[in-house]
Amino acid sequence: MTAYLALARKYRPQSFEDIVGQQHVSGTLQSAIDAGRIHHAYLFTGIRGIGKTTCARVLAKALNCQEGPTPNPCNECLSCKEITAGRSMDVMELDAASNRGIDDIRELREGVRYTTARDRFKVVIIDEVHMLTEAAFNALLKTLEEPPPHVRFVLATTDPQKIPATILSRCQRFDFRRVSAADLVSHLQRLCTAEKVEADEAALAVIVRQTQGSVRDSLSLLDQLIAASKGKLTVDWAKEVLGVADRRWVLESLSALLKGDAGKAIMVLREVFISGYDVNLFVTEVLTNLRHAMVLKIAGRNRELLDLSEGEIDELQVITRETNPYDLHYYLQVMLKAVENIRKSEFPLFAAEEALVRVASASQTVQIPALIQRLADLEQKIARTQALPPGLFPAAAKSPPQTAEAQSKRRNSEAPAGGEAGPAVPQSATAPAEQEEQPAQEIKLLPAEEYPIAHEKVAPSAAEAEQPAEPVEEPAPVEEPPPMEEPPPIEGTVPAQGPAPQRTDAPPPYPDLAEADLAEVWKGLVAFMRERSDGLLATVDSRLFEQCVIGGYDDGVVTVVIPSGAKAALKDYNLEALMQDYLRLPVEVRIRSSRKSLIDDSLAHDRKRRKQERREKLEQEMLDLPEARHVKDLFGAQFKVKVHEDALEEEE
């Protein structure tokens, strides 16, 4: 019995034309061989199982073929056959995952120094090159940059981000792409025909969706299905063997989510779980179809963006017929976060149920575009109500103001029986006793300006026109106080544009400014500016004020030293007025610009002074300790104490 050869090895491409879905790489290499511009180092990157190592072997055959270098190796000569079988002495394949040390690279460097055994080039193929150590990369660097003329390097990796930039800059890089679903299904159909296996296109599509564009993974799954099938390869059998949930469940769950029916979605998930399918895979399928539905709504039936058959696209169109594409985008965001939580959860079933409920609840929320549309409709309705007729309040029209005759009739009806009768009333104006007039209903109306519609002026009634208008007393005019004159600005200061400082009658904080600590005075001024109610330092960089110092005080004149170039930043602040408001003294402020070094020296002098004061204080506290007094009494001698420098550092 002969050993079985897997499909991935049996149908490995032996020429550039046989490589599936990588025409951009094959065409470039063939053109380079035709033009004689063969680089000394190539780097092939891409996901697993898309032909990186296979392309490197085909390139080695194209370079060492007896008819070459040729873009189409013959696969008949001794060199091509040995490379295909993996027995060529001039083609070295190194697995960097297991031979990743510096000793392996040293051995490789020694081997490439010698000429070829028989062929034209010595081709070195390093697979998974990103697994090499840093020292191994450094050892390979010089040889890769200037190899012997008979050596060609081909590096293959699935993670180019881990390769040093010094290696990348010395190679020609080719990025291998994922194979499209259509190309991969066609390739699997050709292999099934060669193997005399009958397979449905839908079954092959299920395989392709599980492998995400990897040719080797697709061939492995196809090999598994062929071995497990008892005849024709059907889609139901493929889903059962691969553990893929039935598409009917996926569509039912998706339809329930879009309709906001969380209960039905959970029931479908429970059925999937009881049937033994992976919950994570099922939720991933729902997520994938939700993405397909969004793309279908936005881009239409674009086969380059949708890895679905025509029947599956029709099913999605029916489900999402009344769904907004922007709503689908929002549901997809919620589902992506939910899938991530499912993968991290110790209870995937419960996490999946929570995810479905979250998405179903999201479908019932009102999105921002819908709210904007409602506001636009409301504005149109308000605009239409601007042209209402004058009789806006019918209840008020039924009870007009009472005339003089009505008031007289009411007084007669309210008069006592034995009392004096009122003035005579015409018979036509009297009403039967049993029909006493009810008092008019009082209606309280809001002022016209509080209604969002315009009111028209209604002409007064005849009775209102007969009544004389009551005189309205006009309010006496209020005399405005004369404007206050602004004091002239003090020379050497910048006029303030903020609010004027407020004087208080409190005693000044520094009665004798000549003996005060000028650094503490400036700090107090900065704190005073921060505590002001008008927020004087709300928009100012406080570090600018911290760099300023008071250079001196002499006969009522305070000299403020500011950094060079800071005068423009301080132009909005009247430092003299602020200083007077803070000190409560009639001082004059002079501003002097200085280099930063002078300010730093002043600050350093201030720190040195505070450090010396702290040293003296700590030494005195140590001398006052009972132990120190005991030593002094015992020996009767003076002794000194020394404070460690760490104890003198100020706390931040």
Description:
The protein has 5 domains: 7-175, 3-Layer(aba) Sandwich (Rossmann fold), CATH 3.40.50.300; 181-242, Helicase, Ruva Protein, domain 3 (Orthogonal Bundle), CATH 1.10.8.60; 247-362, Zinc Finger, Delta Prime, domain 3 (Up-down Bundle); 513-594, DnaA, N-terminal domain (GMP Synthetase, Chain A, domain 3, 2-Layer Sandwich), CATH 3.30.300; 609-648, no CATH class. Strand 2 (91-95), helix 5 and strand 3 (122-127) form a beta-alpha-beta unit. The protein starts with 6 loop residues before the first helix and ends with a helix. The strands form 2 sheets. The chain has a 5-stranded parallel beta sheet, with helices on one face. Helix 5 (102-112) packs parallel to helix 6 and helix 9 packs parallel to helix 11 (235-242). It is α/β, with parallel strands linked by helices and 652 residues long. Residues 390-401, 414-446, 448-459 and 489-504 have low confidence and may be disordered. The chain is built from 27 helices and 8 strands.
